TrEMBL record:
Transmembrane segments: none annotated. GO terms for biological process: pseudouridine synthesis; rRNA processing. This is Pseudouridine synthase. It comes from Candidatus Gallionella acididurans. Belongs to the pseudouridine synthase RsuA family. Its EC number is 5.4.99.-. The keyword Isomerase applies.
């Protein structure tokens, strides 16, 4: 973004309208390098760290976030039956249009990526990208070798022209199965389990590409920024 006036910097980070951000600057609520900056000076945005309302904020041109999604939150922008996942993030992020990368069902938990980088969201959610996603499903009936074999061989879903198969699939314990998918069709795991004769009672996404939820140390409902090394794990091999 290069150099910007302080009001535009605050606006770009989702603090509010340019007018409101200008008033915050004039009120002496912003400091840079321990100096209160109340005139609307220009700053280089790269590497900029500022304080606002007593809190430190690092300038980010775009944000890339991993959220450990709890159940009963919707990914949709106009959430209707449950609160939206954006309510789990600082309000600045909704103002800068941070959105989920793809969708998880309201009752699915686990790793959800979010960003305000349109091209990143588009590429990352493209079906052509073939990024494996790992799900752990809890099943109503016991997991059997036959269930694993069916999911590996492919099951026919009624609105899909060809059977869909898991990339890999293995039993975790009597009622849990790990399923790795490259596609992201609507309710895919639940529908595949139903087509294979079982029923999904709980679903958690544990990994996207090489990025594992476990390695992020996030409790349910918590989020973190992703750094370049973590983002590199989201690329196909
Ligand atoms: N498959 C499903 O059935 N639901 C999800 O949320 C994700 C994958």
């Amino acid at each position: 973004m290069g150099k910007l006036t302080l009001d535009r910097i605050l606006q770009s980070q989702g603090f509010g309208t340019r007018k409101w951000c200008g008033e915050v600057v004039a009120a002496g609520e912003v400091n840079i390098a321990d100096e209160i900056v109340s005139d609307n000076r220009v700053f280089e945005t790269r590497g900029l760290v500022f304080g606002i309302f007593g809190e430190e904020w690092i300038f980010r041109e775009n944000v890339y976030i991993a959220l450990n999604k709890p159940a009963n939150f919707e990914c949709s922008r106009k959430a209707s039956h449950h609160p939206g996942v954006h309510t789990l993030l600082p309000e600045q992020f909704a103002r800068r249009d941070v959105q989920p990368v793809g969708r998880l069902d309201h009752d699915t938990t686990g790793l959800l990526l979010m960003s305000d980088d349109g091209p990143f969201i588009h590429t990352q959610s493209s079906p052509k990208r073939h990024i494996p996603k790992v799900y752990v499903a809890t099943t109503h009936d016991p997991v059997t070798p036959g269930l694993v074999a069916s999911l590996l061989a492919g099951v026919k879903l009624h609105d899909e022209p060809a059977p869909l198969a898991a990339l890999t699939c293995s039993m975790v314990d009597t009622h849990r199965i790990e399923i790795v998918l490259e596609q992201g069709k609507y309710h895919q795991v639940k529908r595949m389990l139903a087509a294979a004769g079982n029923h999904c009672v709980a679903l958690c996404r544990s990994q996207i590409g090489g990025l594992k939820l476990d390695g992020l140390g996030l409790a349910e409902g918590e989020w973190c920024y992703l750094d370049d090394a973590q983002l590199a794990l989201l690329k196909p091999d």
